[in-house]
Amino acid sequence: MAAPAVEGVAVGAAALRSVLLRVRQAAQRAGTQPERVRVVAVSKTKPVSLIRQIYDAGHRRFGENYVQEIVDKAPQLPEDIEWHYVGHLQSNKAKILLTGVPNLAMVEGVDNAKVATHLDRAVSNLGRKPLKVLVQVNTSGEASKSGVDPSDCVELAKYVKLQCPNLDFSGLMTIGMPDYSSTPENFRTLSNCRAEVCKALGMAVDQCELSMGMSGDFEQAIEMGSTNVRIGSTIFGPREYPKKQTQ
Ligand SMILES: *Cc1c(COP(=O)(O)O)cnc(C)c1O
């Protein structure tokens, strides 16, 4: 069954194709190889049937940001999906998340040492392979956004890299302000954080990912060095009935 069109805009497989093309073009403009930019299809609030349609179109990376929802959906979908948990995670949900989603590939949104510790312990208890994590940075300074202050990014990155042997510190993530004029500044802040983190930890810049860019600003984010874009509504349609639930 085809996904319903929303205001004449295709959603589902056709929307995915269009996003992948735009990602490729932005990567070319940035002088980056398109394969170096990962597209995470953020499926929160969307039904398994629609995720399945995107999967059948060949996509394998999906993102969710409510623990209960990803734990419900993941077992109903193929095991070769690489799930990303995006956004703030409560430390007391780390174990549920890891137990419920064996094919969890990455947590994009570690914003304090406590959640890192809980994730590290859960990975160890399960005996699964190290979990890739990104440290979330609040680059816009808005109280509504999670993430460490840019001035604390080195400290938390260091904690994850040196104190959490079951976590694979893989880079930084931010949301940034939604309006077009201020995101460049926020994306630049994340890029500057990466330079500091890499210097402090002796990492190569190309080993430290930047997850930035969503439906409204992913092309710009790629032009500014993003290696991981998180795209929800442009692929799945607007979230008309956002879930009100705790994470
Ligand atoms: C929902 C969500 C997205 C996707 O947002 P769109 O604007 O629909 O693309 C990306 N990142 C995080 C952390 C989210 O919660």
Walk me through this protein's architecture:
It is a single chain. The mean pLDDT is 93. Helix 4 packs parallel to helix 5 (113-126) and helix 6 (153-163) packs across helix 7. The protein has one domain (3-236): TIM Barrel (Alpha-Beta Barrel). It is globular, with a radius of gyration of 17 Å. It is α/β, with parallel strands linked by helices. An 8-stranded parallel beta sheet has the order 7-6-5-4-3-2-1-8. The chain has helices spanning 13-30, 48-56, 67-73, 94-100, 113-126, 153-163, 183-201, 218-223, 233-236; strands at 38-42, 61-64, 82-86, 104-110, 131-136, 167-173, 209-211, 228-231. Helix content is 38%, strand content 17%. The chain has 9 helices and 8 strands. Bound molecules: pyridoxal-5'-phosphate (PLP). Pyridoxal-5'-phosphate binds next to strand 8 and helix 9. Residues 42, 44, 65, 86-87, 175, 214-216, 230-234 line the site of pyridoxal-5'-phosphate.
Short description:
This protein is of the alpha/beta class and 247 residues long.
